Amino acid sequence: MKTSHVKVQYAKTHLSALIASVQRGDEVVIARGDTPAAKLVAVDAPSRRELGFVAYQVPPGFADALPDDELAAWEDGA
Fold it and tell me: Domain holding 21: CATH number?
């Protein structure tokens, strides 16, 4: 991995090329004068989220029909 140091004006003018360099694995440090101000690095690819990672069990009867009085309360907005 190569680290390049560039000034802000150069970064503004050559941003596309700097992004391509970062995507190849390089780092770019952008300086204001002689003081480093920012580092341009590649973003990690998002990891796939796996379903079912929570240890939660649906209680028995969860999908059973509601009793008439509870169903009426939900439907009437009570």
Answer: 3.40.1620
If DSSP states are collapsed to H, E and C, what string results for the chain? Answer: CCEEEEEHHHHHHCHHHHHHHHHCCCEEEEEECCEEEEEECCCCCCCCCCCCCCCCCCCCCCCCCCCHHHHHHHHHCC
> Of 47, 44, 39, which Cα lies nearest the Cα of 18?
39
Domain count, the chain: 1
Is there a contact between 74 and 66 (Cβ–Cβ < 8 Å)?
yes
User: In sequence order, what are the beta bridge partners of 52?
Assistant: none
pTM of the complete model beyond 0.85: no
Give the tens place of pLDDT for each residue, 19-53: 999 999 999 999 999 999 999 999 888 888 777 66
